[in-house]
Amino acid sequence: MSEIGRDLVAWYRAAHRDLPWRRTRDPWRILVAEIMLQQTRVQAVLPYYERFLARFPTPAALAEASPQEALAHWAGLGYYGRARHLQKAARRISAAGAFPADFDAIRGLPGVGDYTAAAVASIAFGLPYPVVDGNVLRVVARISNDPGDIASASTRKRFATVAGSWLDVSDPGTFNQALMELGATVCLPREPNCLLCPVAAHCAARAAGTQQELPVKLRRARAERLEHTLLRIERNGALLMWQQNDPAQRMYGFWELPYREQLPAARPGRLVGEFRHTITHHHYRFRVMTATVRETPEGFRWLTPEERQILPVSTIARKALGAVRRTAARS
Ligand code: SF4
Questions:
Q1: Which end of the chain has a smaller Cβ tally under 10 Å, C or N?
Q2: What's the predicted TM-score (pTM) here?
Q3: Distance (Å, whole) CA 272 – CA 311
Q4: Active site residue: 34, 227, 256, 307, which one?
Q5: Which residue, judged by its Cα, is nearest atom 1 of ligand 1?
Q6: pLDDT in tens, 216-234
């Protein structure tokens, strides 16, 4: 094993955070964790992880569930395409009769990219594939003092080769988790804690004093600001809502409040809430207005409070109703 690998693994064994997906080698539990962690912070994933696995402890359990139920157990985690892909993966694993045990087969599951495949292959099956996520790219850039642009595929490939050269082939899963843990808890984006770092002696950026300048990322998506008005239309305690039924849409299967432009014939009332919502570089400002309609518009349904508890309601709709409650409480 490389000296970096040895120091990193020794530190990880002594100091890592105790997280539920680190207490298992079950590939299903690891896959669920990695998919949940793809765009969501550890603290936000924790309450969902155990609840999701309590309901879907095996791929077969998720494969047999309705898409509505799968989405309802994911509601609040965001990026719902992940839940749909996970269910497709569960169906494929369930149909095959066993979880795939080689990298290419894991990589071939819906919603699984190089990073997730390497994590599952190394942690569950001990296969020697380095994981390369944002944390790892940062750590590699700093230890190597490499100013390559991590937005470019060639830099990411080079960094993956470097991480692979440090890999502990006798226990690649622990090594990979150690490298990610270092990026998540010590080698932080703005303020790397070099004094506590177990690989400080090997770090070229620390020696050169360039750690704050790395990694270099040149292409950044420009922030976009968007505004929308949602309508809160109530009848006998039920709310008028619609279900996203376009499989290409991120919120496929979820129930939404109507957008103003969907119901030009609705008669708008007063402003009852405002909130902001950000998805990657899109910054939305939503206004919520009361409104009335003469007839139930085509494609819409009246959902009672009980139905809204059971059916998957989108994050935006839930945020809108929360904003309305807060406005009402203030007035
Ligand atoms: S010494 Fe500092 S910059 Fe280098 S890997 Fe450790 S925390 Fe990161």
A1: C
A2: 0.71
A3: 24
A4: 34
A5: 200
A6: 988 666 778 899 999 999 9
